[in-house]
Amino acid sequence: MSSRLADGNTVLIIDNSIDFQGGVQGVCVDQSEFLILHPDGSDNFDASCSFNAVILGNAGTVALMFAGNGQGLSFHGSFAINQGTGSLSGAQLQGVFAGSFTSATTFAGTITAQLH
Fold first, then answer.
1. Can you list the domains of the chain with their CATH numbers?
2. What is the DSSP letter of 102?
3. Measured in Å, how far apart are the chain's first and last C-alpha atoms?
4. How many CA within 13 A on the CB side of residue 99?
5. What are phi and psi of 64, to 5 degrees?
6. What is the pLDDT along the chain (116 residues), one digit of tens a residue?
7. Rg of the chain in Å (alpha carbons)
8. 88 and 61 Cβ atoms separated by less than 8 Å
């Protein structure tokens, strides 16, 4: 992780992972996550990664991009999964997510998505 201050905001570059369970399964290890913490307690973030996934029973490698906003422990945003290989070649998954942090390193939430 690295950080810097810019115009009263704290900018963090974080390496972490997301363990998807349910209709989307796999572990996404962020290639880059940018988190900007604002003085009023709000934040915004975006990230991307590629990972081996199983989506509704179809396996392959996909690219994930997501962005969102937060306030305190809660967050929400949108995502897209594309550039699939294997059984996910040509698949496009788009949706929204919302959740909250349950500890300093874990969170829980919901994902609503549509597979094209």
1. 2-115 (2.40.350.10)
2. S
3. 35
4. 13
5. -115, 135
6. 889 999 999 999 888 788 888 888 999 986 678 899 999 999 999 999 999 999 989 999 999 999 999 999 999 999 999 899 999 999 899 999 999 999 877 888 998 988 88
7. 15
8. yes
**pTM (2 d.p.):** 0.81
The two tokens of residue 62 are 């996909």
- The residue type found at 60 is G
DSSP string, 38-88: -TTSEEEEEEEEEEEEEETTEEEEEEEEEEEEEETTEEEEEEEEE---GGG
Residue type, 102: T
Residue where the block lists tokens 């959740």: 99
- DSSP secondary structure of 20-35: E-SSEEEEEE-SEEEE
